[in-house]
Write a structure and sequence with these properties.
single chain; alpha+beta; four-stranded mixed beta sheet; three-stranded antiparallel beta sheet; 9 strands; DUF1826
C-alpha cells in the first residue's frame, strides 16, 4: 500500500539552497508538502527508458495530449494511447502517479492531463490559483521556479508590461532559475492553499524536442 510507503520511507531535509523546497529520493518525501513552510516537494528517481522512447515515437499521434477525470476507487480509464512499444509502461506509470496523488491528498477524484508540447504552454513565471498540483516531466526539461528572494512579485502578470521575465524586472539581480528534474515526481502548492506560492513556468524547449 502506498500509505505504508509514505509512513516508512526516510526523507531528506529541505534543500538548504532553496528555501521552502523539500527533496528526497523516495516517494515518502512528498509528505513534506503538508508542512506549512514547504511549497515545493519532489523526489528524484531513475527514468524508465521505455517511456520517453515511446513518447518520442508517438508524439505526433498524441497530438494535443489527453485529459480525463479519474475517480480514486475506479480503474484507470482508457486513455486511447497510440499503439507502440512502451505503451504499457506509460499506462502503468500514469496509474501509479494517480494513486500516489489520490492516496496522499485523500481526494475522491483527480484531473489528469498529458501534454505534448513543442513550445512552452506557460513561458512566463506565474502563480497557479490551485490547490496542490502534481507534475512529472518524462521527456525534456522540467518545470522551472523562483523563490521569493529572487522575484519582484509586482512584475508578475500585467506588471511585466509585456516583457520577458529576464527583462521585466521580475527576476532580481543574481536570481537563479531552479527546475524540477526530469522524471522526478513533484508537488507544488498553488495560491489556493499557500497564498503567496512560488512563481513557476514551463521551460524553453530545444528545437524538435517534444515534451
Amino acid at each position: 500500500m502506498l500509505q505504508a510507503t509514505l509512513t516508512e520511507d526516510v526523507v531528506s531535509p529541505p534543500d538548504a539552497d532553496a528555501p521552502h523546497t523539500a527533496t528526497s529520493t523516495s516517494v515518502g518525501g512528498l509528505v513534506r508538502i503538508f508542512e506549512p513552510g514547504v511549497q515545493i516537494a519532489w523526489f528524484e528517481r531513475a527514468p524508465v527508458p521505455a517511456i520517453p522512447e515511446y513518447l518520442q515515437a508517438v508524439a505526433r499521434r498524441l497530438a494535443s495530449g489527453r485529459s480525463r477525470v479519474v475517480h480514486a476507487d475506479d480503474e484507470l480509464p482508457d486513455l486511447e494511447l497510440p499503439d507502440d512499444a512502451g505503451k504499457d509502461a506509460l499506462f502503468a506509470e500514469i496509474g501509479w502517479l494517480t494513486r500516489v496523488y489520490t492516496d496522499l491528498l485523500g481526494c475522491p477524484s483527480v484531473g489528469l492531463r498529458i501534454e505534448v508540447l513543442d513550445r512552452p504552454m506557460c513561458p512566463r513565471f506565474h502563480v497557479d490559483c490551485t490547490g496542490i498540483r502534481l507534475v512529472c516531466t518524462w521527456s525534456g526539461p522540467g518545470t522551472e521556479w523562483l523563490h521569493d528572494g529572487w522575484a519582484d512579485r509586482s512584475r508578475l502578470g500585467p506588471g511585466s508590461r509585456g516583457l520577458a521575465d529576464e527583462h521585466s524586472g521580475l527576476m532580481l539581480p543574481g536570481a537563479e532559475v531552479r527546475s524540477i528534474p526530469t522524471f522526478a515526481v513533484g508537488l507544488l502548492k498553488g495560491a489556493a492553499v499557500a497564498g503567496q506560492c512560488r512563481p513557476r513556468r514551463d521551460p524553453p524547449l530545444a528545437a524538435g524536442l517534444p515534451l
